[in-house]
Amino acid sequence: MSGEKILHRKLQTQLEQRERQQRLMQPPAPGMVNQLIDFGSNDTLSISTSRALTKGFLKQLASHPNFVVGSTSTRIFEGTTHYLNDIERDLARFHEAEAGLFFNSGFDANVALWSTVPRPDDVVVHDEYIHASIHDGMRRGRAKTRSFAHNDLQDFQRVLEDLRNHHAGVKDGQSVVFVAVESFYSMDGDVVPIREMLHISRAVFPRGNVVYSMDEAHSNGLIGPDGSGLVCHYGLEKEIGIRVHTCGKGLGSTGAVVLASETIRISMINYARNIVFSTAPSFITVAAVRAGYELAASEEGEKRRRRLQENTRYFQHMVTQHEQWAAVRDKGVIRIPGAEDWGSTSFETPIFALITPPGEENELADHIRGNGYWVDAVHYPIVPKQLGRVRLTVHADNTKAQIEGVVGVFMEWAGARVKRAGRKARL
């Protein structure tokens, strides 16, 4: 048997096992997705699907008629153009940071950051639910890592105190403790308790040898002045040393910027392999990002943020006021993390996890799609084992009728299971 056949057999065995476990990932046909009402994509402000971003992008092209499509080289050679320098300067100002470094994607940004900035004697403390790109970066880096239970302040404090008591460099203030969190967690839709975490770390480390890094992928464009994010919403620009803002969610395009000190920026340019050995972002990519930021900071952007909040709260209202919800929740047919706290903060996240009993997420997703609404089924390893779910995202351009419709559809599915369980209990 040839080497190629052996390889294919091994790969096919893996794929068949994943398919048996009902977690084989196959991208849906674009034609199918486009026929359904969008409750799945990350285009939360609807600026991409509405073509509002397209109009802004075309304006950028028209205002730079002599643009060159390709970037021609890496950042360390000819790839750093005036246009790229300008967007980094302007995004740093927009988010009230010292400096910015632009990347082709948020994944690239996190890998570069975590593989190069923490030193071997440092420690990275991270929420257990941080993005896969941060894990990949940490694996390539040389710092030690410690995790704490998701959004669990007591466990966070326990981990910090353990480091203070058992790590000499941390205790004497010579080693840095990096804290890696996300603003909005993409699979549960909850918010990092950042102010409480800052209070805890100040108490545990009075020397101040802590650097926070926040990934604002799902908050960029959605909250804060002109959509500048969670850190700016709380006025914590001076307390969060590193931020990663991606542009492929609320801003509708692609790419990302790391916001930090100029020293961190230059360090990544020198040591991050996906900067040194990768082609720089092209004019096309950066023009779309600038168009997205200009739209987010405009009156239309503010209207879209308000409408997204209204739609998100309306979705919550339709769920909690539904006649089936109490039974559905109590029987565990569908669980939505954070539902007990809806309405308790000044803003709501548009991401909702419909967690089903193990193995039923595909059936729920198929039922919702069969009724005209696109959602995504999510499985391990993207989420923890036994916590498969349907991920539903509300958008600025969803109508109240669409929100009522999608809630009615998944409540119909859940209600049927409640009734079925009741009949079995009576037998």
UniProtKB/TrEMBL annotation:
PANTHER family: 8-AMINO-7-OXONONANOATE SYNTHASE, CLASS II AMINOTRANSFERASE/8-AMINO-7-OXONONANOATE SYNTHASE. This is PLP-dependent transferase. It holds the Pfam family Aminotran_1_2. One of its GO terms (biological process) is biotin biosynthetic process. Its cofactor is pyridoxal 5'-phosphate. It comes from the Eukaryota. The keyword Transferase applies. One of its GO terms (molecular function) is transferase activity. Keywords: Pyridoxal phosphate, Transferase. The lineage of its organism: Eukaryota, Fungi, Dikarya, Ascomycota, Pezizomycotina. The keyword Kinase does not apply. Residues 36-407 form the Aminotransferase class I/classII large domain. Belongs to the class-II pyridoxal-phosphate-dependent aminotransferase family. BioF subfamily.
